[in-house]
Amino acid sequence: MIIIFRFEDPWIWIILAIFVLLNSGFVVLTFYQRRRVQRYWNQVNFGSFLPFEISHRNYFIKMILLSLVGAVILICLTRPQMGEQTLKAKRKGLDIVVAIDTSLSMMAQDIYPTRLQKAKQEVALLIKKMKEDRMALVVFAGKAFVQCPLTSDRSMTKMLLSLVDFESVSMKGTSLSEAIDISCKAFDKDSNVSKAIILITDGEDHEGLAIKKAEWAAKKNIRIYTVGLGKEAGSPIPILDSSGNLISYKKDDNGSVVMSKVDDNILKKISKITKGAFLRGTEGSWSLKSIYEKISQLEKKDMESRLVITHEDRYQYCLWIVFILLFLESIILVRRKTREKI
Known about the structure:
By secondary structure, the chain is of the alpha/beta class. It has two domains: 5-85 and 312-338, no CATH class; 92-302, 3-Layer(aba) Sandwich (Rossmann fold), CATH 3.40.50. Helices cover 39% and strands 25% of the residues. Helix 3 (115-129) links the parallel strand 5 (95-101) and strand 6 (134-140).
């Protein structure tokens, strides 16, 4: 049997080392100063005027005991732990897949800084709000793929979210049907947990198969909450150089500037078919908070059990040492004995 001994906060050992060095210097300095005072005291014979004698040895013993008290308290703060406990933890929550459109139309700047950047900011805030729920990330343009598998690890989800950009999907275009298909497949097949998809896009479906995929998702009891980004009037799609400077705007074959407009109708149909909800995202007026509040109203069921390993704290033994040292310090007297008065 292997006994595991560890410290939860080992960085406090640095403070302990500094304390020991400073305290040692203080004790040594005090020792030499008291020796000088004692020599002068003996020369002028001040001791004969006092009804007691001072024990310098006991004084230094008390100093050492108090120093040890400080050191042991710092060791307590490192939270020494020995032994492990394995517990089974069940949790209730939802499974949520966030599908983010990374097509060129998401470069439009009618939402600051761009539609895509604003979408990433809102998803990052959503990750902070989630507690027991699991999340997956799907990115799509002409094709779709899972950027982050279904997980409750928020740190990993945030990290993979930060990597999403316009180059995440090489195939250009916008395929909502592909996004819905891959998002549905990102869920655990055998899980009975409530499932929801948040589809963030400008709503331009270049294939026209999204409705059929939405009906397929509805049969699997997967709700789709759609977010349409962009102003009704539309916005040109900027073309940037490698430094991020504006060169021009995307144009069609006739040389006219292409205006990216949100297709609210298809997004509303998708959300209606799957009993979800639609949110219109415009400059400064949208947030995923309202959608998450609606998703949170779905029935939360028991998710998979997790094995949680906890380490047993042993700082209590250090506290007993502190009490013993304080007791010893309190019974040691600096006044060694009382003189008889004549």
